[in-house]
Amino acid sequence: MSRPDPTTDLFETHRPRLARLAYRMLGSTAEADDIVQEAWLRWRRVDPAQIQTPAAFLTRVVTRLCLDTLKSARMRRETYVGAWLPEPVIDPPRDAPDEDDLTLTLMMALERLSPLERAAFLLHDVFGVAFEEVGATLDRDAAAARQLAARARRHVRDARPRYPLARDEGDRIAQAFFTASRSGDTGALRSLLAETVVLRADGGGKVSAWLNPIVGIERVLRLFQGLHRKFEPAEHIRYLWIDGLPGYATLERGAALQTTALSIEAGQVTGVFITRNPDKLRRVAAALGMAGP
Questions:
Q1: Is residue 58 within a helix (H) or strand (E), and if so which, with residue range?
Q2: pLDDT in tens, 210-248
Q3: Mind giving me the DSSP string for 195-261?
Q4: Given 3.40.640.10, 3.40.630.70, 1.10.10.10, 1.10.1740.10, which CATH number is that of 104-160?
Q5: 3-state class of 264 per DSSP?
Q6: Where are the domains of the chain?
Q7: What span, in angstroms and rounded, lies between the C-alpha atoms of 111 and 154?
Q8: Up-side HSE of residue 36: CA atoms within 13 Å toward CB?
Q9: Which tens digits make up the pLDDT trace of 23-73?
Q10: Helix axes of 167-183 and 217-230: crossing angle, nearest 10 degrees
Q11: Where does the chain show beta strands of DSSP type E?
């Protein structure tokens, strides 16, 4: 019988937090897993007795690895086919505590930040790291780290919902949206959409998807009208919360798995985020008990 390894146990207590940080930085659970695994390898090469604050050390390692990865990730996104969306992550059951308040909408806003602004905002505003430590992680002083976070905060301010969305209300609107969009009930769908609604779909060039955002209520309505006329209704699998937004998973034409997440303000859908890229849906498929997307 093997003896407990306190070094491993200590790392494992930090693993969930490190994985969340890496995912929020990169928008990819696969890349986040690679980052955390590399952090583990580096952790094994140091003497834990020489590490005064393991949490700070590991956070610093993961953040710096993410910053390195973002350089190549941004180059890949410049050649990405169509809209890029973060990999959808299914939220825990409603009785589980929220780990942070970042929604998919906010993650999209973070994409517009520089890597350093993104890191400063996430470390301080989301993960509660003091500016002195943020600065040390980014090779900046505390004042510079504070300025990075402040600039980031200004950029993402409009992406934060003005009013929190109750879980039951989100569920109700997601169900009404699914029913209206798949039944051809244009009047019901119109009542749910904000005038400035934007639909984004991520197929990654692997499956069919709209390459550019669909902006405005009339264009979004015409899109769903066309889908209703041309294709059989999708098979509904489950209503879900995806990165803090209400939505659902469906099997679309050709039995392709798809997730749809909805941003909602004042009872109206302001954003529709559709993920169809099968590479981004493997974990969702596993969580739903499917063999693959």
A1: helix 54-78
A2: 999 999 999 999 999 998 888 777 788 899 999 999 999
A3: EEEEEEEE-TTTS---SS-EESHHHHHHHHHHHHHHSPPPEEEEEEEETTEEEEEEEEGGGEEEEEE
A4: 1.10.10.10
A5: strand
A6: 1-79, 104-160, 167-287
A7: 14
A8: 22
A9: 999 999 999 999 999 999 999 999 878 888 999 999 999 999 999 999 887
A10: 60
A11: 193-202, 214-215, 235-242, 245-252, 256-265, 268-275
Note the pTM of the prediction, 2 decimals: 0.91
- Among residues 40, 7, 30, the alpha carbon closest in space to that of 89 is found at 30
**Nearest alpha-carbon partner for 15 in 2, 33, 29:** 33
258, 275 in Cβ contact below 8 A? Answer: yes
Between CA 31 and CA 234 the distance in angstroms is: 31
Q: d(Cα 8, Cα 21) in Å, to the nearest integer?
A: 19
Which architecture, in CATH terms, is 1-79? Orthogonal Bundle (1.10)
C-alpha span between 173 and 268 (Å, rounded): 8
Q: Options 3.30.420.40, 3.30.2320.30, 3.40.50.10860, 3.10.450.50; which CATH number does 167-287 get?
A: 3.10.450.50
User: Do the two domains 104-160 and 167-287 of this chain adopt the same fold?
Assistant: no
Amino acid at 131: F
Q: What gap in Å lies between CA 7 and CA 89, rounded to an integer?
A: 29
